[in-house]
Amino acid sequence: MDSEIDIYTIGFTKKNAETFFGFLKRSQVKTLIDVRLNNVSQLAGFAKRDDLKFFLRELCGADYVHSPELAPTKDILNAYKKGDMPWEVYEEKFLNLMGQRNIEKSIKPALLDHGCLLCSEHEPHLCHRRLVVEYLNQHSDLDLKVKHLY
Prior knowledge:
The protein is of the alpha/beta class. It has one domain (4-149). Helix content is 43%, strand content 19%. Strands 3-2-4-1-5 form a five-stranded parallel beta sheet, with helices on both faces. InterPro entries: DUF488 (IPR007438). This is DUF488 domain-containing protein.
């Protein structure tokens, strides 16, 4: 078992820029790992890809990485958002997808160390960012100590 790695998760909804970047700065996040399927939506406000890169560098001295392999497929996400798929089914399908993608082999521990998984959901309970951390803790030698910022 590797040594413990501090990792964070955050959603940008229900937060203004001051709160969002304040959380990241106080937590000393090194890299924001964007696990959204769509990272350029106009609905994202300050959390659009290019704006995020700038704000992270200027305000937090942090890097930005988009990791769509840690996002659900459009089909899974849309079915859940429309209410056609309950959370339990979404969770099972997403965890199976992580297994098919072998994310534990492609994600570098250095990226996760003081990294923060970004999604849109305000809280982690019904969000795939929590599932990514749980999956990696279960299917790799990593010992991820997670703190959800909200």
